[in-house]
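tool_call predict_complex ligand=thymidine-5'-triphosphate
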Amino acid sequence: MTSSKRKNKKGERVILHIDMDYFFAQIEERENPQFRGKPLVVGADPKKGKGRGVVSTSNYEAREYGIKSGMPISRSYKLCPDAIFLPVNMDLYKKVSERIFGTVKEFSSKIERISLDEAYLDLSKKVGSFKEAENIGKKIKEKIFEKENLTCSIGISKNKMMAKIACELAKPKGIRVITPEKVVGIISEMGVEVVPGIGPKTKDKLRKKLKKRDPKVRDAQIFSKEELINFFGKRGGEFYEKFRGKDSSPVKEEREVKTIGKEHTFQQDTKNPRKITSIFKQLIGDVYRQAKGRKVKGVTVTCRYEDFETHTKQTSFPAGEYDERFLIKKGTPLLLKFLTQSNKKVRLIGFRVTLYG
Ligand code: TTP
Ligand code: MG
Ligand code: MG
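tool_result ok
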């Protein structure tokens, strides 16, 4: 009997994480089968290496050249000038995503969508064992392939964090179960950055405290909860649990937060406040026109500096139908904070509204 055939203990959760493989690029391959097997990059126009903007994603062939999501498109062109470069066809990807997750929902209505290509399912009430959950996972994969001719990867474990880690380990095209008794052993051997919330800055602090270049979760387990809270504040307490493979966050069913947003990458990085605010107002105008007639309850401003460091600031207010001037009034102070808090030039700005209902 394999360990995944075990019966679940009472109160134990069974969480499934699904993530589509190289999503935008895989859709493009499906639409253009002649591109299969060749490196393919979806993102901004590379204009022979002089284009601005970033790589959205690429297929696995392109990843072998070192191409990654979020990388400047010009760099990806240098790494592989012969790749096929395609623009982002978001309308298509959204439609495909809706269909896929409509199918996934048929397996469990307890679903939380995280992005266009990713969701968590809580199967706790539906299955009696991890083996049963694995069978559901296999069926989901088959169904998606049958209906959409697209592959995905699936991870299953006792909580969201571990299910996502299992999914990463299964990529591409795979399915992986991490049973509760395997959780600590597996996470302990991974780098600390697998823990959600540990980005480059937190990792750097851990590096210094542990005097290790590439600290593993196992190394970070030497800290007591109090020490971690001292280092990182409230988040530290959460890290303590996560270093032990624990994550009690629930799968939050829909009531989908809808947002509408737009971004602008400057032709040249700039610090000119007049230029930046003028583009910013145009972005707000565009977003306002798209959101017209909808109730808005918050705004988010994104700023990416010349070194690619990217930050967001947001503010919320009672939901209502507001005019463009109101959005400018709410958004501008956030933008100004970005311009005053750093001497760096700005590469990209974005504006987004959160819709109500
Ligand atoms: P991911 O699931 O992170 O990546 P992926 O599906 O392309 O590849 P993987 O097989 O590793 O899961 O993101 C899903 C889609 O979101 C991706 O296809 C394109 C888009 N995306 C961006 O536009 N910019 C980004 O920086 C990232 C990470 C993703
Ligand atoms: Mg994906
Ligand atoms: Mg994803």
